[in-house]
Amino acid sequence: MKSAVETLNPTRVRLSIEVPFEELKDSLDAAYKKINQQVTVKGFRKGKIPARVIDQRFGRGAVLEEAVNDALPKFYTEAVNEGELNVLGQPEVDITELKDGELLAFTAEVDVRPEIEIPDYSGIEVTVDALEVTDEEVEKAVEQLRERFASTNPVERAAADGDVVTIDLQAKVDGEVLEDGVADGVSYTIGSGELLDGIDEAVTGLEAGGEATFTSQLKGGSAEGKDAEVTVKVTAVAARELPELDDDFAQMASEFDTLEELKADSRKRLETTKQYDQATQAQERVLEELLKLAEVPIPEKLLADEVQTRKHNLEHHQLGQMGLDLEKYLEIQGKTLEEFENETSEQAIKGIKTQFILDELVNKEKLNVNQEELTEHLMRRAASSGMSPDQFAQAVVEGGQVPMLVGEVARGKALAVVVEAAKVVDTNGEVVDLEDEEEAAEATETVEAATEDKADDKAEEKNEA
């Protein structure tokens, strides 16, 4: 076999491949064997039909076609390996010459990873939010904890904001009561926004036994999205009472003996959360600067496939779970289809550039992923997918997605290398030290967000199947 590589552009090549006919012998034998098992000729046992009879009855062309289809992937792969090409996607194959007994010649055009020169990233400098926890934020956190320990007591008065009311609901569309539009004994906190739009105004001021009617767009059920006439009847009103903010509350709501200790712990938790947010912000901004420094040609077909995949995932995974279609989603977002497609294309380009640059950095820095790192990443992915670790692992293995997970971890480690070399300061001008055991894991999450890796979706699809 002889092969030659022609570079069409930085992301696409054409392979020209010539195969002497004798190298097709195995494929020709396989073609005769396959046809033998599929056809019947009077006077011959199945599977024992001579080659010359098959040629006479079914045509030599049918045999050659079967043999060539069998041989092409093998010779294409050999040519790719010989040319040391890093191909992307499937090739477009064109048979240019087929002479029986002499020669098979074909071309294969395919996208390839572009050669990327890693820029000097040591000069990257980014600014992130300062790590500050205010007294107001601590008070808010304690107040939220206090809300969780609120008690309710029945009252004989009109319902007011913050009260818990027990209500019966009936929804009509076009004058007809919906089969799934009746609910009795529903507990609702006025002002929580957890039910229908307009219900807060309807029940406020009603005592037990009072009722009101209002119009609201249904958020679910058989008439989702339609305007309904909703009748609400209040059957009970209860006032919420918050516990006193004192040491007794601290002992009831936590492992601490005093309110001051509880507040100190709340401050520490907020600081931890803000440290994580600060690290994520640094990684995102360092990545943005790295992408600006590098020239990365984008393969057109790969970009088109990536845009299509992102649209598919949005429509069939995210929007489907919310009961929305793309048209309704765009209406809510206030975007045109053209704006949406432009944004999706920009996100896809960013994702491809991120993957190409970080993969090149993985190779340059010779970064490896050990079993412990892969297991930790798999556990986190499983948690975010809502599947058990065993279910997720099985789905990933059966779906052939293990290399994808390894790639995610490796790219996270590559980004961590860049972040470590960058200068990160906060809005107060203080240098931020991001050295932490979790830095690579957090960087992996940042990379996932940029590249929108599909391991979760593929694992979920495999699990549903």
Task: Tell me briefly what this model is.
This protein has 465 residues and is α+β, with helices and mostly antiparallel strands. It has helices at 25-38, 51-58, 60-82, 135-148, 199-203, 247-253, 259-293, 300-322, 326-333, 337-365, 371-385, 389-398, 402-421, 439-451, 455-464, and strands at residues 2-9, 12-20, 87-99, 103-112, 125-128, 151-154, 164-173, 176-189, 211-217, 227-241, 423-426.
Characteristics of this structure?
465 residues; alpha+beta; 5-stranded antiparallel β-sheet; 4-stranded antiparallel β-sheet; 21% strand; extended
Distance, first to last CA: 42 Å
Task: Report the uncertain regions.
Answer: none
The amount of beta strand, in percent, is: 15-25%
The rough form would be described as: extended
Task: Quote the average pLDDT.
Answer: 88
Specify the number of helices: 15
Total strands? 11
Spatial extent as radius of gyration: 32 Å
Helical amount: 40-55%
Mind summarizing the main beta sheet?
Answer: 5 strands, antiparallel
Structural class: alpha+beta
The H-and-E topology, N to C, reads as EEHHHEEEHEEEHEEHHHHHHHHEHH
